[in-house]
Structures are given as structure tokens and as C-alpha cells.
Amino acid sequence: MQQAIPYKTYTLPSTHHNTTNPQPPTQLNRSSKNAVRDAVTENAVIVLARHGCCMSHVVKRLLNGHGVNPSVFEFEEDEENDVVKEIEMIGDENGRNMQFPAVFIGGRMFGGLDQVMTMHISGELIPVLKQAGALWL
């Protein structure tokens, strides 16, 4: 079985300072205004999730198990509304009803954990990932 390359994590630039973790998380080198849109368009598979969300961990592990290297865009709970607004600007009409973690495949909203699991169980996830260029075999 192939091993996936570990995913990279993006976070919104924030004014919050975590004193328990002196090393800053990896951040996008862009303004936070277009950070979500840029991350979605630049990655074959990206998971948008609240920082520390256990369900996003499940999605990441499932995708890693298939050999996919999903990028992760983490944000704090108080930044969720800004993320939803930016997703709506991308053109996703489901932004208001979105639940996190949200998975984008090929620059389009794929769904949340329930959609990813449903497609995985039915065997339809692999072809979608291949079509997006996230899998080569």
C-alpha cells in the first residue's frame, strides 16, 4: 500500500496569540481576504476545518489512507463566518448551509464528512479523486 505524503496545514493570519505553543502554525503568504479562495483553487483536495476538530482528523486520515495528500485550511471558531462568506464568493451556493469540516475536490465543494464517507463506502470516491488529479494510480 502506498503512503501519502503528510498534508500541509494553512491557517488564517490571526491576531490570536497562543502562549502554550510558541511556534506559529504554517500560514498562507497572502492577505486573509482571499486566503480561502486561493487555497481552494491551488489544491486538488483541501479540507477546511476548525482548529482542533476531531472530525477533520477523520477526513484527513481517510484521504491519507487512499494515498491522497489533502491540504488543510484551519481556522478558529470565531473566524468561521469569514470563511463561509469567502466560500460564497467562490460561487458555492451551499456556503450558508455548510458544515465543517468541508472538503473541496478539484476546486469545487464536495461535501462534509458524511459525503466523503458515503462516497468512500460506495466506491465512488476513488474515481472522483483521480479525476481531480489527487491520485495517479
Automatic annotation (TrEMBL):
Task: Tell me the ranges covered by the Glutaredoxin domain, including all copies.
Answer: 45-109
Q: Which InterPro entries match?
A: GlrX-like_pln_2, Glutaredoxin, Thioredoxin-like_sf
Principal place of residence:
cytoplasm
- Is Chaperone set as a keyword in this record? no
Q: Which UniProt keywords apply?
A: Cytoplasm, Redox-active center
Q: Where in the cell is it found?
A: Cytoplasm
The residues forming the signal peptide are: none
Q: Mention any one GO cellular component term assigned to this protein in its UniProt record.
A: cytoplasm
Q: Which domain of life is it from?
A: Eukaryota
Protein's UniProt keywords contain Cytoplasm: yes
Note down the stretches annotated as region Disordered. Answer: 1-34
Q: Which family does it belong to?
A: Belongs to the glutaredoxin family. CC-type subfamily.
- Name of the protein described by the UniProt record: Glutaredoxin-like, plant II, Thioredoxin-like superfamily
**Species of the source:** Helianthus annuus (Common sunflower)
